[in-house]
Structure formats: structure tokens, C-alpha cells
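Reminder to self: C-alpha cells first, then the designed residues, so the page reads top to bottom the way the pipeline ran.
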């Protein structure tokens, strides 16, 4: 059995509506530029009832492995680390939230970017489906039904790049601006090992701010090069997540997460301000000329 070029580790919990779409966005023929056997998708279910089964993925042209976390926890961290341990590729991306759709060239772009530096930290950009960030749009009637209609309106998945037309960026200052986290973070296997995966100290529901913590720790490893991907992204489907449900819940998660981060790390939580290299996926080139960004 040949080894894949890219592994995607994806955590799922009660995503019966969202997970099939996410998996479709990672499978052939939707994902362009890579052959089927170059990608493996590892779904680690964290206690869904019922959990996803073989019948749920049988129609997809992809190498999908369904794992169940034997002792599910409120935090997705143990599930993520189980997926990282199972991944076979040299380049591994983590979806801490299995409700995020990928744009069609995301995996090929990350693989291309990984070849630009011996120690790359590849950060993809985050978008949320809907007219505004979801903690705001839900108060104006945006819900699962509205999102289903939105996706039907662009004919998804026929043209995956139309997701950009119906989504809101999480980066207010653009791709060169400060970034708190990447919801599809790709590192070589060696760097995941060096990092020790996600930190198991983040036991709070949803992992708290473990995803920003992982991004910060990865960028702080010696001699790494952060590479942000332009022209591709992930798109959050609404599913009642604790950080996207209401403005108050989003503030509460960040406030409590920041408090615990300060307690654990001895310094305040911060965004990553240096964008590193900007890799234009359409042009297959780094577009900011200054070394290191």
C-alpha cells in the first residue's frame, strides 16, 4: 500500500449534516490537482450518537478512515492526537472542526507550499459561510436552513470557488494581517512530532484556545517558515459551535480561553502578526518579496 502525500485529520462530533459535505469537499473529483491515492482522510469521531459509519462515506471517491475515540472528552485534543498518530503522510493537516468545507485546490496548494522550505508551517485562511461572522448573523435569522438555501443557490459543490461569494473572512485586516488561528493547519510529520501534537492541558469544551496555541507554538519552533495560502480556504458551516453561536458565547470562550492561556503559558494570548510568506495558490508562487514576509 503506497503512502499518501497528504493526510487530513478531522475531528467530528454530532455533525450528521455537516460532515458529509466536509468529506465531499476533501474527496475527488472536488479536490483538484491531486490523485486519489495521494490523500488520506482520517475522521476521528469524538462521541457522536450515532457515529459516522462506512455507509456514510461509501459514495465518496477517497481513502477515508473512520476512527472512534474510545473515551470521548469535552475537548477534541485527545481525538486530534489519535488522528495524528494514525496519519501516514509526510504532510499532515488538522481540521479541529469537522464542519469546515475546503475550497477545491486547498490540498494541492498546501502540498506545493510544503516544498518551498524544509520546515514549513502552512496556515490556511478561515472563512464563515453567511453574510457576516456567524455569531452575528445568527441573531439576524441565519441558521442551518438558511445555509442550506445559500449553498443550493450557488450550486455547491459544482463550483467550489463560489464559496468565496457567500462567505465572510475571519481576517479583518486581510491575509497579511494579524491572525489568531488556522482551522486547517499543515505541518510536516517531523514538525508535528517536534511540537508534540496538540497540548493535552487544554481540557475545556472545544479545547478552548488550543488551536491558537498550536499555531503560535508551531510558528515559534526554530528555523520554521510560516506560509499562508492565498486563493484557497476553509468555510465554516453553522452547527451550534460554542464560539460561533452568539456574540456572548464567542466572547465568553475567548475571555475564559485567554485567562487559562495566561495561566498555562505565563503570557497573554496574542495573534500572529508576521504573515510569513504569502503563497498564491492560483499562480503557484510566493507573492511577497521580502525574505520572511
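Designed residues (293 positions):
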Amino acid at each position: 500500500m503506497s503512502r499518501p502525500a497528504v493526510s487530513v485529520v478531522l475531528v467530528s462530533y454530532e455533525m450528521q449534516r455537516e460532515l458529509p459535505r466536509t468529506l465531499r469537499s476533501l474527496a475527488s473529483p472536488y479536490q483538484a490537482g491531486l490523485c486519489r491515492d495521494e490523500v488520506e482522510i482520517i475522521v476521528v469521531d469524538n462521541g457522536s450518537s450515532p457515529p459516522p459509519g462506512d455507509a456514510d462515506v461509501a459514495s465518496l471517491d477517497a481513502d477515508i478512515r473512520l476512527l472512534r475515540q474510545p473515551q470521548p472528552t469535552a475537548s477534541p485534543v485527545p481525538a486530534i492526537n489519535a488522528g495524528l498518530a494514525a496519519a501516514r503522510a509526510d504532510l499532515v493537516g488538522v481540521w479541529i472542526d469537522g464542519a469546515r468545507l475546503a475550497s477545491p485546490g486547498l490540498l494541492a496548494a498546501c502540498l506545493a507550499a510544503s516544498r518551498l522550505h524544509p520546515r514549513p508551517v502552512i496556515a490556511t485562511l478561515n472563512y464563515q459561510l453567511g453574510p457576516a461572522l456567524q455569531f452575528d448573523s445568527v441573531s439576524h435569522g441565519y441558521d442551518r436552513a438558511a445555509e442550506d438555501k445559500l449553498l443550493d443557490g450557488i450550486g455547491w459543490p459544482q463550483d467550489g470557488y463560489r464559496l468565496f461569494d457567500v462567505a465572510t473572512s475571519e481576517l479583518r485586516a486581510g491575509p497579511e494581517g494579524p491572525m489568531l488561528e488556522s482551522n486547517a493547519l499543515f505541518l510536516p510529520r517531523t514538525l508535528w512530532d517536534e511540537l508534540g501534537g496538540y497540548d493535552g492541558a487544554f481540557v475545556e469544551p472545544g479545547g478552548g484556545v488550543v488551536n491558537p496555541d498550536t499555531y503560535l507554538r508551531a510558528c515559534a519552533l526554530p528555523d520554521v517558515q510560516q506560509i499562508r495560502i492565498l486563493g484557497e480556504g476553509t468555510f465554516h458551516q453553522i452547527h451550534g459551535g460554542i464560539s460561533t453561536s452568539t456574540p456572548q458565547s464567542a466572547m465568553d470562550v475567548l475571555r475564559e480561553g485567554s485567562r487559562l492561556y495566561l495561566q498555562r503559558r505565563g503570557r497573554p494570548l496574542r495573534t500572529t502578526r508576521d504573515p510569513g510568506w504569502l503563497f498564491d495558490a492560483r499562480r503557484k508562487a510566493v507573492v511577497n518579496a521580502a525574505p520572511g514576509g
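The mean pLDDT is 94.
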